[in-house]
């Protein structure tokens, strides 16, 4: 008998601080597996966010840098410009990517930085105890929307893939989820595709992962997994938004104007 | 189908229970006893029926389960 | 003999940075330092470097953080309101012990203020500005030559001690043109085994972080104390200052940057009129050249601090001159007005 599924080599064998049933644990595992399979441990430079995943560097055994809240894409840009041959991953949560860091998110994508952004969307602020995120659903009860998110007051949630899909430069944008095994497998494939594209110098890639936050949603992990599928997925449709190297090229990616003509 | 068995590192488990419902053979149950965290962990109640599909290991957020297969 | 070239202050800083080995520069436009990004945009590609106009000053300082973590010599520049935006990044960079250079060509404040040179950011530069206990080495050049030399020094100190180094100039210094001898290209750079270059099998992962929340008792306490042991070494070894005619002076003028130029002129004119004045000019504002100041002021009857502000460095002068605070007078003009030589002379004469 040999091991068919084993503890990833690029994962540090330490207990994680994530809650039971948290999506971070799943995605960290997938990243470590992809690093093992692609044999890129010596090439990956990880930017850790401010959020529950601030300690990502304690779990994924690669050179890592902490970024201030929201600034990860800028830090990643600095790192990638110095080491264009390394594989820079900017791992971020919803506040990081879509609230405080919206500017950095949009501009790194717009410049087409050859980095991979992995966006964990769990529709809430985890680390700080469950406040509304830009991705929280209308009616969702959080610490700062105790009566449910009111669209008249604070608008609807933001859809990151759709937003970035309006820019010219990004090359690969996909939304995935980790609420069951088939979707986890697709998420792993997306992460692998993104890092492969980065290795081939193809440009900016963005993988959004709909994820569970049982503790701050106040439900059991299995109930949380169902909530992602039943409540989040209808608003955040899964799938490939663009995959330019793979032939999926929306109109926004090939503008007819925008270049000065002599 | 390959036969195999799950190797369960019970001390890593946080008792989330996500593995239990993804097992297609329904051979995982939460233990009666608790681990060092004070939570129950998965126990394979019928190793002979394990098909080494790895779905439990794939689902797990804490790398609790490895799969041995022939 | 190296040739003298006529250079604008801002451009001298940029060229000196390139010669110091800076190959990564990130910035956002703001008056009165826009010559620096414009120069770097043209010059860095010539030496295989990277110029990137960031989407904000906030993004720029974080790009510096990433580029520094990756082991490069890197720089950003801005002016007062933009430096305010960078304070978060400066605190993170300091906590993570990353070497980097930031240039502040000060302008009138607070808020949007105006675009003339001023010295209203002394507190911000020397007292923190970002959260937590840390220091940034602050160097205040007073001539275009010094702008070039101090920039080289800034990169050297940053790498030697793993700290942020700030060149604190002002709008006037940035705009003036003077002849200077540009420094030689630096050829040797210190090794950075802590940098993020990819975890190879022969070593552990490198982690750059300012968060010290591991659960080890007193981790942040110990880390901060270690930071300050490092700062003490800088204090012991890296102060820079100029004394001009202080030995027999009755009155010591103190000032930095543009104000020091005014004071130096005032000293010369006062001496012509038989009044024994001298100038003590700090060049490092942090670490403040305390011992040197105390020595210069030992026999003075009165000390006059002149600043383009409502009085910020004067506090350090009072603290460190070794005299009663009553012996220290202040004359300042905020909002971009340069104190006039005549006004300074009148002040000194009033002490007679």
Structure overview:
- Chain A: GO terms for molecular function: oxidoreductase activity, acting on the aldehyde or oxo group of donors, iron-sulfur protein as acceptor; thiamine pyrophosphate binding.
- Chain A: One of its GO terms (biological process) is small molecule metabolic process.
- The complex is a heterotrimer of chains A (262), B (70) and C (352).
- Chain A has ten helices and eight strands.
- Chain A is globular and about 55 Å long.
- Chain A has one domain (23-253): Thiamin diphosphate (ThDP)-binding fold, Pyr/PP domains (Rossmann fold, 3-Layer(aba) Sandwich).
- Chain A is an alpha/beta fold and 262 residues long.
- The mean pLDDT of chain A is 97.
- In chain A, strands 3-2-4-5-7-6-8 form a seven-stranded mixed sheet, sandwiched between helices.
- Chain B has 70 residues and is α+β, with helices and mostly antiparallel strands.
- Chain B has a single domain, classed as Alpha-Beta Plaits.
- Chain B has a two-stranded antiparallel ribbon with strand order 1-4.
- The model of chain B has no long low-confidence stretch (mean pLDDT 95).
- In chain C, the strands form three sheets. A seven-stranded mixed sheet of chain C has the order 3-2-4-5-7-6-13, with helices on both faces. In chain C, strands 10-12-11-14-15 form a five-stranded mixed sheet, sandwiched between helices.
- Chain C has helices at 9-19, 35-46, 57-69, 80-95, 122-126, 144-161, 171-175, 219-237, 257-272, 290-297, 313-320, 341-349, and strands at residues 4-8, 24-27, 50-53, 74-78, 100-106, 137-139, 164-170, 177-181, 207-208, 241-244, 251-254, 277-282, 284-286, 302-307, 328-332.
- Chain C is built from twelve helices and 15 strands.
- By secondary structure, chain C is an alpha/beta fold.
- Chain C has two domains: 4-181, Rossmann fold (3-Layer(aba) Sandwich); 242-349, Rossmann fold (3-Layer(aba) Sandwich).
- The radius of gyration of chain C is 21 Å and the shape is globular.
- The model of chain C has no long low-confidence stretch (mean pLDDT 96).
- At the A-C interface, β2, β3, α3 and α5 of A face α3, α4 and β9 of C.
